Amino acid sequence: MQQTRDRAIGILDSGVGGLTVAREVMRQLPRETIYYVGDTKRCPYGPRSKEEVRKFTMGIVRFLMNHPIKAILIACNTATAAALDLVREQVDIPVLGVIDPGARAAIKATKNKTIGVIGTQGTIQSGAYEQALRKIHPDLTIHSLACPAFVPLVESGYRHTALADDIVADTLSPLRNTSMDTLILGCTHYPLLADSIRKAVSESVSIISSAEETAVELSTILQHQQLLSDQHSPKHRFFTTGSTESFSKIAEDWFGFPVKVEQVELYFPSVG
Ligand code: DGL
């Protein structure tokens, strides 16, 4: 029988964004198997109501729980803001989000205590980053901005284009007049637009994605709970509810190796 420690890490997102976290998990924890679900069919989650995001997130969690997994990583800020508490209530394995790790990384990086946060409408409206940042450090200036155009740009394969540069520069212009020295990419899709974002903000701004710190947290939890895998060649699986073709194209570009993607249907429980 399979040992608990050889089970997979379930990673979820509304689409390809969580791959930015998955790549960092593979880098820091190369013995761990990943089962990744991107709910591309219902992407973007950002403009949806909290209730809807909770329902979709629980649909993915239920799918993952039917597979051999030992921890869940909600690699989506919108779903973390809306449903982390709910998922933690519903399952008896470790569940991690991406907002607290992102907040910690930004606090480590800032020198002038002025932090920008960009994310989806859902994440920005929830105030989850402000709360997470102020819980650790009460004396910060925070500039938050929703960037609803970014996720559709990534999902339709427009990264590394002049169109992406223009839309990103235009959207981020309100942040240029601030004194932020640190910018949190508060959506896991945004590291896929990092080149355009880098061009749009001052060179001195530290750009923070949650991926690295989230993988550190996962590693710490697995170690603490004696759940670190000792396998040599983990067999990752990738699932999407949308087109396997466009998903694998973006995944292969991001990972730099071929990715087999399986299509799935999700079923949604009714949740509060
Ligand atoms: N990658 C999700 C996040 O981190 C995104 C987005 C969406 O579907 O709007 O918020």
Question: Would you write up a description of this structure?
Answer:
The chain is an alpha/beta fold and 272 residues long. It is 44% helix and 17% strand. It contains 11 helices and 10 strands. The strands form 2 sheets. Strands 4-3-1-2-9-10 form a 6-stranded parallel β-sheet, with helices on both faces. The chain has a 4-stranded parallel β-sheet with strand order 6-5-7-8, sandwiched between helices. α9 (194-200) links the parallel β7 (182-185) and β8. α4 packs across α6. The radius of gyration is 18 Å and the shape is globular. It starts with 7 loop residues before the first strand and ends in a 9-residue tail after the last strand. The model has no long low-confidence stretch (mean pLDDT 96). Bound molecules: D-glutamic acid (DGL). D-glutamic acid binds at residues 13-15, 17, 43-46, 76-78, 120, 123, 151, 187-189. It holds the Pfam family Asp_Glu_race. Pathway: Cell wall biogenesis; peptidoglycan biosynthesis. Its EC number is 5.1.1.3. This is Glutamate racemase. GO terms for molecular function: glutamate racemase activity; identical protein binding.
